[in-house]
């Protein structure tokens, strides 16, 4: 088996592996950020719904 490959080919292979690793890592971080944002938006939505429910309850008890 001949491993007499030019040095630049090893650099290219290393660059491809590093690029793949960084892509996967960045993808995971972006998914985590999106999930946190979705959770925050959901919590805000639920809070608004509860406030609206209280408002309606107060209006119906006054009328």
TrEMBL record:
Going by the entry's taxonomy, the superkingdom of the source organism is recorded as Bacteria
UniProt xrefs under InterPro entries = Spore_YhaL
Q: Which residues form a coiled coil?
A: 21-55
- Which regions span the lipid bilayer? 6-24
What keywords does the record list, in alphabetical order? Answer: Coiled coil, Membrane, Transmembrane, Transmembrane helix
What is this protein's name? Sporulation YhaL family protein
């Amino acid at each position: 088996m001949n491993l007499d490959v030019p040095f630049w080919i090893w650099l290219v292979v290393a660059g491809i592996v590093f690029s793949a690793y960084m892509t996967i890592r960045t993808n995971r971080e972006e998914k985590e950020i999106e999930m946190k944002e979705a959770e925050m938006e959901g919590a805000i939505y639920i809070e608004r719904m509860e406030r609206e429910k209280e408002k309606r309850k107060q209006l119906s008890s006054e009328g």
